[in-house]
């Protein structure tokens, strides 16, 4: 009996693996619109192009966005909003009309690949659950009628909270209250060759675990072997929450006798800011999570249950949404602000061509906002002295004299040194008072190195971590033999005085 069970499990693994083993994984982004100053669709598309983002998910089927995305080749997932599901789930003709207006009218100029029918319907709008399957079927029928069913997949994103007893993953099962909906829905996805769409948020799992889940385990940080979580039933080792949740979904589907529907992660991310009771919603943690997630997905690592299998993922989200209700963290999941400026520079070495994997011509070194003035002055003195930066443009009457502040002058000196050093890791640190930015600090006739031909393009980064502890980073600058720069009364000369 044990050998038969082993053989069955092996066949299950091979069946699922065969579905997507040959597929190349992708990273996409969700585009929310709850911004007080939402960028114009053409601006959104310009940002996507600059970032080499080839997959996006919209929470609607906005005509302006679909027109702006036309002829770009960007793969687009559109959404039937939850408030339209009742009508579509109760009327085949309403579904056909929706597909006609939002898909047929734009395809193939706009590369629509996926239709998300609602979002987390079972947990957010349970009253719509009875018609969810019909909505899926009616949308699919409309695609068949338009001969688009092979080009466009139909599914519905599910919240991971629907999976109970998720660790160890082998014991996971769906909330059985929803089995009357889930079983036929999964069979529909199976018969149409579609995906099981899952929203995966290790941040919430970590927050709700009351310390049981280590932060490093949630952030994909390397763990020693004795700290890895082990599924006692399968002896599989889990090094991160994300993989455990994906495998829990596969085991939960297997519990319902569905074994060949691949998982597509429709949302995952980490907030960069939170309220006082959300201490781990930080820029650094958001950067760490999303950078590690992107690498994990694009390297086709797979999961312990399905190694090497593509787990394509849409990051939540492109923009911070300042109009979102709820805690502060709800407004701060974005990679960019409304102006297209990156919230942080992703650390994406060896990640392939996503989020501009080469930003060597678009990064600058700037004085940190709020940095100690004395430390800035010391760093400025060093750059204009031993650092061999030509600080002549900072003299009174020269192009970069104004604004005459320590911060502005330090930024010029820092950025010049950074470029002189070839933007090597550690060359923008200056004892912690400098930071990498993707916004050009040039202004007026004061043109900073590397700015003249880029016009301050706002690109998120994929440079290595720039802290001084990074491997291969330069030693921190030490000022025990510091130089002090003193202006003459006329401001015409810089005099170097050895302390």
TrEMBL record:
Record bears the keyword Endoplasmic reticulum: no
GO BP term (any one): carbohydrate metabolic process
Domain X8 as annotated: residue spans: 363-448
Family statement: Belongs to the glycosyl hydrolase 17 family.
Domain of life from the UniProt record: Eukaryota
Cellular component terms (Gene Ontology): plasma membrane; plasmodesma; side of membrane
Catalytic activity: Hydrolysis of (1->3)-beta-D-glucosidic linkages in (1->3)-beta-D-glucans
Gene3D superfamilies (alphabetical): 1.20.58.1040, Glycosidases (3.20.20.80)
GO molecular function: glucan endo-1,3-beta-D-glucosidase activity
Coiled coil: none
Membrane topology, from the record: Lipid-anchor; GPI-anchor
Protein name (database record): glucan endo-1,3-beta-D-glucosidase
EC number: 3.2.1.39
Compartments in which it is found: Cell membrane
Enzyme class: hydrolase
Signal sequence coordinates: 1-21
Keyword field: Cell membrane, Disulfide bond, Glycoprotein, Glycosidase, GPI-anchor, Hydrolase, Lipoprotein, Membrane, Plant defense, Signal
SMART domains reported for this sequence: X8
């Amino acid at each position: 009996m044990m050998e038969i069970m082993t053989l069955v499990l092996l066949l299950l693994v091979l069946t699922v693996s065969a579905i997507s083993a040959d597929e190349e994984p992708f990273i996409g982004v969700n585009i929310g619109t709850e911004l007080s100053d939402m960028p114009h669709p053409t601006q959104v598309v310009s940002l996507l192009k600059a970032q080499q983002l080839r997959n996006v998910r919209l929470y609607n089927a906005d005509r302006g966005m679909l027109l702006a995305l036309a002829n770009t080749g960007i793969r687009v997932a559109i959404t039937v909003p939850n408030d339209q599901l009742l009508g579509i789930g109760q009327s085949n003709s309403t579904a056909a009309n929706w597909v006609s207006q939002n898909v047929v009218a734009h395809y193939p100029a706009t590369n629509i690949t996926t239709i998300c029918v609602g979002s987390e319907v079972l947990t957010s709008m349970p009253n719509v659950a009875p018609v969810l399957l019909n909505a899926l079927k009616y949308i699919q029928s409309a695609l068949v009628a338009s001969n688009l069913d092979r080009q466009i997949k139909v599914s519905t994103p599910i919240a991971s909270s629907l999976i109970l007893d998720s660790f160890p993953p082998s014991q996971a099962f769906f909330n059985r209250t929803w089995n009357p909906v889930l079983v036929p829905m999964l069979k529909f996805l199976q018969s149409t060759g579609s995906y099981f769409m899952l929203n995966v948020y290790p941040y919430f799992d970590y927050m709700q675990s009351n310390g049981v889940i280590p932060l490093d385990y949630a952030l994909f940080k390397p763990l020693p072997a004795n700290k890895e979580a082990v599924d006692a039933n399968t002896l599989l080792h889990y090094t991160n929450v994300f993989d455990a949740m994906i495998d829990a979904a596969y085991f939960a589907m297997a519990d319902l006798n569905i074994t060949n529907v691949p998982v597509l992660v429709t949302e995952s991310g980490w907030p960069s800011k939170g309220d006082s009771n959300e201490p781990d919603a930080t820029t650094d943690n958001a950067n760490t999570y999303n950078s590690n997630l992107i690498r994990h997905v694009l390297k086709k690592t797979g999961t312990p249950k399905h190694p090497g299998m593509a787990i394509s993922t849409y990051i939540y989200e492109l923009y911070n949404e300042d109009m979102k209700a709820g805690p502060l963290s709800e407004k701060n999941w974005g990679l960019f602000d409304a102006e297209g400026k990156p919230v942080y520079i992703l650390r994406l070495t060896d990640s392939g061509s996503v989020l501009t994997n080469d930003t060597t011509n678009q990064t600058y070194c700037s004085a940190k906002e709020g940095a100690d003035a004395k430390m800035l002055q010391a760093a400025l003195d060093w750059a204009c002295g031993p650092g061999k930066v030509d600080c002549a443009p900072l003299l009174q009457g020269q192009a970069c004299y104004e604004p005459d502040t320590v911060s502005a002058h330090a930024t010029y000196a820092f950025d010049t040194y950074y470029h002189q050093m070839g933007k090597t890791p550690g060359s923008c640190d200056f004892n912690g008072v400098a930071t990498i930015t993707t916004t050009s600090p040039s202004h007026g006739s004061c043109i900073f190195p590397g700015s003249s031909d880029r016009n301050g393009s706002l690109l998120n980064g994929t440079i290595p971590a720039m802290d001084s502890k990074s491997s291969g980073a330069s030693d921190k600058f030490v000022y025990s033999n510091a130089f002090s720069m003193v202006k003459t009364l006329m401001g015409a000369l810089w005099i170097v005085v050895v302390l």
